[in-house]
């Protein structure tokens, strides 16, 4: 009987370690969360008012890009540009939309031939982006965030 009581006391005394609570530090939780965080994706892409009714994320992205490209192309078409040689170029705009919905061009890749035929192309592109409807910024985890992307603009003047 003494052996059983001693064995029970020994088991109870050593099993107390299993009931200890681990202390969890907020810094550890934050570090763990940041490891699983995908910094290259947003929950909702930037959008215009006419794209709000769409449900799918990719549909909203496509609507945003098409609206942006459509506005730029309409503006350029209204300028009645005259060239001495045919221009067929894809201009690549690096665009940043900040968390307030403000659009900025960070860089442009334009072929030298296009610059030669249309010397004012930089200012025309900047002006075309000034006349856009209100942009709603991208959202990541219920926060408005800054996003960057490349926008191809096809210029075909004959």
Question: How would you describe this structure to a colleague?
Answer:
With 158 residues, this protein is an alpha+beta fold. Helices cover 40% and strands 25% of the residues. The strands form 3 sheets. The protein has a 3-stranded antiparallel sheet. A two-stranded antiparallel sheet has the order 1-4. Strands 5-6 form a two-stranded antiparallel sheet. Strand 5 and strand 6 form a beta hairpin. The longest helix is centred in the middle third of the chain and has 22 residues. The radius of gyration is 29 Å and the shape is rod-shaped.
Descriptors:
158 residues; alpha+beta; three-stranded antiparallel beta sheet; two-stranded antiparallel ribbon; 5 helices; TonB-like protein
Helix content: 25-40%
Contiguous uncertain segments of 5+ residues: none
- Report the sheet-strand fraction: 15-25%
Class per helix and strand makeup = alpha+beta
Helix-strand string: HHEHEEHHEEEE
Mean pLDDT across all amino acids: 82
What's the β-strand tally? 7
Main sheet: which strands, in order across?
3-2-7
Q: Number of helical segments?
A: 5
CA distance, first residue to last residue:
105 Å
Question: How does the major sheet shape up?
Answer: 3 strands, antiparallel
Alpha carbon gyration radius:
29 Å
Anisotropy-based shape: rod-shaped
Summarize the structure.
This protein has 158 residues and is of the alpha+beta class. The protein has five helices and seven strands; from the N terminus they run ααβαββααββββ.
Topology:
Elements: H1 2-15, H2 26-36, E1 47-48, H3 57-78, E2 87-97, E3 103-109, H4 112-117, H5 121-130, E4 135-136, E5 138-140, E6 143-145, E7 147-157
Antiparallel strand pairs: 1-4, 2-3, 2-7, 5-6
Helix pairs in contact: 3-5
Organism: Winogradskyella rapida
Protein name: TonB-like protein
